[in-house]
Amino acid sequence: MGLIKKDKEMTSMQGKVALITGGSSGIGQASAVAFAKEGVKTVITGRSTAGLEETASKVKAAGGETTVFQVDIADTSVIEKLADDSAAAYGRLDYVINSAGTQGEVNVVADQRLESFEEVFATNVRGTFLVMKYTIPHLLKQGGGAIVNLSSGGGLVGVPGASVYCASKHAVMGLTKVAAIDYAKQGIRVNAVNPGGVDTPMLRKFFESIQDEDERKAARASFDASHPIGRAGRADEVADAVVFLCSPRASNIVGIALSVDGGYVAN
Ligand SMILES: NC(=O)c1ccc[n+]([C@@H]2O[C@H](COP(=O)([O-])OP(=O)(O)OC[C@H]3O[C@@H](n4cnc5c(N)ncnc54)[C@H](O)[C@@H]3O)[C@@H](O)[C@H]2O)c1
Asked: Over the range 126-159, which residues count as b (16 or more CB within 10 Å of their CB) and which as e?
């Protein structure tokens, strides 16, 4: 009996609080729902009011509690306040999930626009950096915590036409590894999740941008085939990895890239 109780205490995430950026759709939304099922309260941020409301109602349906802040993380002037408000929302902050991300343009390097480069880096790299910079002091006050950054298979290998996106996601890996080393002794575990293709609005937007129907179908078929599992992933499969990395079950996992990609980078 005593042993069972101890085991539960060691694995429970009940009552913890997670901040999720990009929580208005896709992996961020699925993570909010997955946390709710573990008894973790969430603070969700994103730009789309409708998307944030949708996430809030899904969290409620899963029996969870959430607070919503509409924030553009490319806006450098709001992140410190976002971190403070997130920690104040439920009086503590334990987990930080950097899921806000943008894919930029698909083009060879010479045809990539500088504006697109700056937009992608402002969200994927600078946004992730600033959210970490301003939330880490709160985690330290708490005595530790976990940060999970959404990198990508494109943060580990090159993807044709996606130089800017891949560069940004490799940069996320650099931030993740060094923050992991810097804070390991202080009880903050920092890790990355590296999805392959995942059926979310981001991926759907990419295929919708291909005008010709036959070309679009061929691109989708070859995309699916590039994943040994033969299909894109689901947002809830990635969310399970996010929650795992925050959980006490991942207590010795520090600074890793956890591929959730149906074998994409093993291929
Ligand atoms: N879908 C995939 O195939 C895939 C693959 C690998 C990695 N990822 C990464 O996973 C993360 C989540 O992507 P997703 O698939 O859920 O896509 P998504 O487009 O559904 O979700 C991304 C969310 O981030 C928000 N966002 C973007 N820029 C923002 C900003 N500046 N401020 C605030 N919110 C912003 C979007 O509005 C959206 O709600 C991203 O970082 C993405 O790069 C996705």
From this structure: bbbbbbbebbbebbeebeebbbbbbbbbbbbeeb
Tokens standing for 64?
A: 């969870």
Map out the domains of the chain with their CATH numbers: 13-259 (3.40.50.720)
Q: Which residues line ligand 1 (CB under 6 A)?
A: 21-22, 24-28, 46-48, 51, 72-74, 99-102, 123, 127, 150, 152, 195, 197-198, 200-203
Mind telling me the catalytic residues? 165
**Amino acid in the structure at residue 18:** A
Query: Which residue puts its alpha carbon closest to atom 8 of ligand 1?
Result: 152
Residue 181 CB neighbour total at 10 angstroms: 12
Identify the residue whose C-alpha is closest to ligand 1 atom 1.
198
Query: Tens place of pLDDT for every residue, the chain, 267 residues?
Result: 444 544 555 568 999 999 999 999 999 999 999 999 999 999 999 999 999 999 999 999 999 999 999 999 999 999 999 999 999 999 999 999 999 999 999 999 999 999 999 999 999 999 999 999 999 999 999 899 999 999 999 999 999 999 999 999 999 999 999 999 999 999 999 999 999 999 998 888 888 888 889 989 998 999 999 999 999 999 999 999 999 999 999 999 999 999 999 999 999
Q: What is the whole-number distance in angstroms between the Cα of residue 203 and the centre of ligand 1?
A: 9
Using the mean position of ligand 1's atoms as its centre, give its distance from the Cα of residue 22 in Å: 6
Q: How far is the CA of 201 from the centre of ligand 1 (A)?
A: 8
Contact (Cβ atoms closer than 8 angstroms) between residue 190 and residue 228: no
